[in-house]
């Protein structure tokens, strides 16, 4: 996999993927259920693989969370 480092390209991909996954925006504060950390959607990492893009937790590779592991930062489920 190749980490997308071009900021313009990364944000374009993130904008599309965040909206499709949960209606998130780039400035949404989200929590990763894997590591429990809070960050903005725009801080997620994007990798390109053979089938498209993989959106990972900001703290990847220490955290294995991906875009499907996001919840609202104040979600009561995560207590």
Strand content: 25-35%
> What is the helix/strand order?
EHEEEEE
Write down the overall geometry: globular
User: Roughly how many Å apart are the termini?
Assistant: 34 Å
| Helix/strand class | alpha+beta
Number of helices: 1
> What about the largest sheet?
3 strands, antiparallel
Number of strand segments: 6
Q: Assign a percent range to the helix content.
A: 10-25%
Low-confidence sequence ranges: none
Side-by-side strand order of the widest sheet: 1-4-5
Radius of gyration: 12 Å
Mean pLDDT across the residues is: 91
What quaternary form is this? Answer: single chain
Describe the structure.
The longest helix has 16 residues, at 7-22. Strands 1-4-5 form a three-stranded antiparallel β-sheet, covered by helices on one side. The chain has a three-stranded antiparallel β-sheet with strand order 3-2-6, with no helix packed on it. 20% of the residues lie in helices and 28% in strands. It is globular. By secondary structure, the protein is of the alpha+beta class. It has one helix and six strands.
What are its keywords?
20% helix; 1 helix; 79 residues
Write the topology of this structure.
Blueprint: E1 2-3, H1 7-22, E2 29-32, E3 38-40, E4 45-49, E5 52-56, E6 70-72
Antiparallel strand pairs: 1-4, 2-3, 2-6, 4-5
Could you provide a short overview of the structure?
The protein has one helix and six strands. With 79 residues, it is of the alpha+beta class.
């Amino acid at each position: 996999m190749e980490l997308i480092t071009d900021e313009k390209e990364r944000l374009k991909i993130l904008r599309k993927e965040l909206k499709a996954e949960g209606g998130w925006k780039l400035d949404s504060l989200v929590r990763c259920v894997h590591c429990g950390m809070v960050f903005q959607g725009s801080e997620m990492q994007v990798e390109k693989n053979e089938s498209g893009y993989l959106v990972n937790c900001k703290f990847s590779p220490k955290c294995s969370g991906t875009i499907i592991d996001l919840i609202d930062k104040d979600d009561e489920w995560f207590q």
